Amino acid sequence: MKIVVLAGGLSTERAVSLVSGSGICRALRQRGHRAILLDIFLGMKEVPADLETLFDAPDGLCPDAKIEITAPDIDAVRRSRGDDGSCRIGPHVLEICAAADIVFLGLHGQDGEDGRIQATFDLMGIRYTGSGYLSSGLAMDKAMAKRIMDAAGIPTPKWEILHYQKEDVDRLAEQLPMPCVIKTTTGGSSLGVYLPEDREELKKALLDVMDFDGQILMEERIYGRELTVAVLGERALPAVEIQPCGKDFDYIAKYQAGSSRELCPAPITPQQQQQAGAMALKLHKALGLAVYSRTDLLMDEAGQLWCLEVNSLPGMTPTSLVPQEAAAVGMDYGTLCEEIVNLSYPLKRR
Description:
Elements: E1 2-7, H1 14-30, E2 34-39, H2 74-80, H3 93-98, E3 102-105, H4 116-124, H5 133-140, H6 142-152, E4 159-162, H7 169-175, E5 180-184, E6 193-194, H8 199-208, E7 216-220, E8 225-232, E9 235-236, E10 240-244, H9 251-255, E11 260-263, H10 270-286, E12 292-299, E13 305-311, H11 321-328, H12 333-344
Parallel strand pairs: 1-2, 1-3
Antiparallel strand pairs: 4-7, 5-6, 5-7, 8-9, 8-10, 8-12, 10-11, 12-13
């Protein structure tokens, strides 16, 4: 197949996306596909007269991507394109995607998980991997996902949306229940998530989270073991337990070697594995997700599972959590990438 792996963009998860996309592209090329990587924001300034020749580019146009300790400078990326950056889809992106048999969405965060690119592709008749625009948008918005969890009877920590201005922060920092979690409703890779230990840290969190897009959500903080469960097709894969070497599973712990331990399958009972898988499948279906997703859970000291959120386009670097879960059932990275393509290709989008 001719496959465009779409990655990058202006999300705070840009670097993760480029590493995921490069891994996916190279894996698909090794399996005989004519795959290329394309940055959705930067695009290509010049393209050959025959777009078909692009799909034979050396190494699939993959960049030398890596994930730094800090999130990328999005303003610098915007300036690098050389125009005003007002259009979030770069030069020739849509026509190159239209020339492919399918687009593998290696995007993360906004412009990928929020459903906007899926809606664009639906209008243009472009095939793509994963979930459609509506379910993607619902899953990306943590508040909407929480409402669906509540309606479906899926246990999730108590939560509320906060509406405030900077002048309200001192009052809120004294009034809000502790311990709590403060997060933006549209963040990812633990960016825009704050775990204050005292009211001074809560005040700082309430100020810092205002720098992110989306609404601001306060969630009851539950202490316990961090688990994540992937869904592939119609089945849940084995749960992973994440043990941060520091206090929390933040951006650094997720992507820097040695910052966390990931145990797959998680050392929990068969019954707990079944319960975690059933919860992930239930949320996947309640949101109308398709092909694959990854649900993040907490298990408290009593063994109760709590659902935190679901990722419609989870990280797909070769060492990411979903590939680890697939490996636990005998599916290597290249087979996983190809399975996602095969499950997505026949889908009829609404």
